[in-house]
Amino acid sequence: MRRLPGSAEPVSSPTPALGPPGATTASGTLGSRTVPPPGARSAWHDVPRSQVRRFAALAMAEAPTLAEEILREIRREYPHVPVILDDSGEPKSLIGIRRAIEIFVLHLETAEDRPRVHPEVFQDFGRGEGIGGRSLDSLQAIYRLGVRLTWRRLAEIGQRVDIPPPAMYELVDAGYEYLDGLVDQSVRGYAEAAARQAGERLRLQRELMELLLAEHRTRPAAGPHEIAATLAERAARIGWPLPARVSAGVLLRPARQAVAPAVGEGVLLDMEAEQPRMVVPDPDAAGRPELLRRAMTGWAGAIGPPVPLVDAAKSLRWAEAALRLMERGLLPAGEVLHCTEHTEALVLLQPEELIDDLARRTLAPLAHCGRTHARRLAETLLAWLETRGGAAEVAGRLGVHPQTVRYRLRQIRELWGDEIDDPDRRFELELVLRAQRLRGDLGRFSP
Questions:
Q1: Please, are residues 302 and 234 in contact by the beta-carbon 8 Å criterion?
Q2: Burial (CB count <10 Å: 0-12, 13-18, 19+), residue 47
């Protein structure tokens, strides 16, 4: 329950409906006070018209000074509120407050169905709060202050002209309903400003990501210092602290209309690309990996290795390479992978043409072996290269008899001869065979 300023009598809180004293809303109430049943008269309408005109004349005369008092008090209580002048040099807020008071008072005298005020000023109030980064609570507190001062003055005028208390209660209800309409306009302006700000921030964030993920080696005119300065300037626009190291990632949408993952503050995310991209600051910071893991539930993709900020494009290249391997079934699908956990596969499978060419040269001795026999020799050779052990150790790894391993090792030495003792050749063989094992085609030879 509200109380009329300066009175001990309670006044019911209003509903969002907007209407004059004595008017019924669609729900059959005036504010939140129940309207008398059909046939009953409104207390305000029972006030003689001459008395209403006296009340309105006094209120209209005091509207300019009341508006100035309200603005002074607002600026005292909320000094952060900017003062914007119109073309005549008068504060726009003062004009809006005065106009709102005058239109409501005029409505009392003419008894029109609904008092109306041009919404532009009050939408501007809302936009100003949104652009200034302030909350709706701040905006509503300013309105509460204004209405408190207004009804204190109207209550004094009502006493001077002997308006009956029941009629003043109805007036208070109608006034708060009128205020609700003004607040609605300000909320609309606030929402518009917030939407524009969000859109502008996304645009600036995409520009920052484009710069971060660009291949700077293709721009020789831009030196490291110039790139760093540009990054700092772009990051400052969105309040993004420049980290020392970052990881770049690329994602696969689980569905076309999938909601962006809640990656947390500081992580840059571009959902406009066909494959969304992200930049993770300080990826090794405490709690960051676990936060990303939870946020990415239901998504698939890859996050590149941590690199210095200016090398973010390199991290993205590895993430894109991992994604291609996932799509070929060579890396686990259906989750967001960290490249640092799949280094061997990325190093050995990424340069596919080079590995295939090396395989043709190093595995040439298997050219005349049957496919099955070639695979068994390749398995034995790889186990021997990895363990550098004897027949028993290799047999244990392969699950075969040691004598079988000895037979195969003799064949391997016959096929490769003394080259099998060359450290460089052994390294090449192990590299090729590990890559083939990752691809599931160990021992394959393509002439």
A1: no
A2: buried
